[in-house]
Design goal:
9 helices, Rossmann fold, 246 residues
């Protein structure tokens, strides 16, 4: 089978998924049960915990390989697994760096990241992702790069994510992506977020919806979530379709 035939068959198959209610219901049921049982905490990448769903990491790999960014900006570092993951993909591509931002980079995580072989492609900033002092540093780094991808995965309240979207979207270049994680909070039972400052009506997905009302630069790439079925980022894969000056 020729590659173009394989790709076309894949597109047609994925296009049918959204009409398969049993498949959609099974995926949603699995997500909720897996969240209750902390499934996303089970995985590591090159020795560092990566608190993400494997399906989303595969999607990020596909995006990185397609876009081949010069810079990936990620808010929210935690144990550093996703920084290491993105850096390793860029290492295979042969170019690109990662800038990680977190309000609190714990010392043991910083040491583990800084001593990792992939750290050569990573830099970090400690501070609020929306503070002017941090943004000034981000602008200095971003100004040197042509193709930029942004991943938002820090504080998941509506107001914070909306501020991040408004602040970091100008860095994203046409054809690249602005990825917002944990939009799924809007779709899960509220009691699963009862010990958090976010929940239904106050989360990354509601921030994405509000953000899209005021911009024509981004569209939701529904093909990605349709393909994954199981994702922490429904409506969160935003493709940049215009430059800032268009």
């Amino acid at each position: 089978m020729q590659n173009k035939d394989f790709e076309q068959e894949k597109i047609e198959r994925i296009g049918k998924y959204k009409k398969k209610s049993n498949l959609i219901d099974a995926a949603q049921s699995f997500f909720i049960e897996s969240m209750i049982n902390k499934y996303s905490y089970n995985f590591a990448w090159m020795g560092r915990p990566i608190i993400q769903y494997p399906q989303d990491m595969i999607a990020m790999q596909e995006i990185l390989w397609k876009v081949k960014p010069d810079l990936v900006i990620e808010t929210g570092i935690a144990h550093g697994g996703s920084l290491i993951y993105y850096a390793s993909i860029l290492e295979l591509i042969g170019k690109g760096n990662i800038l990680g931002i977190d309000i609190d980079i714990r010392e043991h995580n910083r040491i583990a990241i800084e001593t990792h072989p992939m750290f050569k492609r990573i830099s970090m900033i400690e501070g609020s992702s929306v503070s002017e002092s941090v943004l000034e540093k981000v602008r200095m780094v971003a100004g040197k790069n042509r193709t930029i991808l942004v991943s938002l995965d820090s504080n998941h309240t509506h107001d914070h994510v909306l501020k991040e979207l408004e602040t970091y979207s100008p860095f994203v270049t046409k054809g690249s992506y602005l990825v917002v994680f944990d939009t799924v909070v809007e779709d899960i039972p509220d009691h699963l977020s009862s010990n958090r400052p976010w929940g239904k009506g106050n989360n990354p997905k509601t921030a994405v919806w509000k953000f899209l009302e005021s911009t024509g630069r981004f569209v939701i790439d529904h093909d990605i979530e349709n393909k994954l079925l199981i994702t922490a980022a429904p409506d969160g894969y935003l493709k940049c379709i215009k430059d800032c000056n268009e």
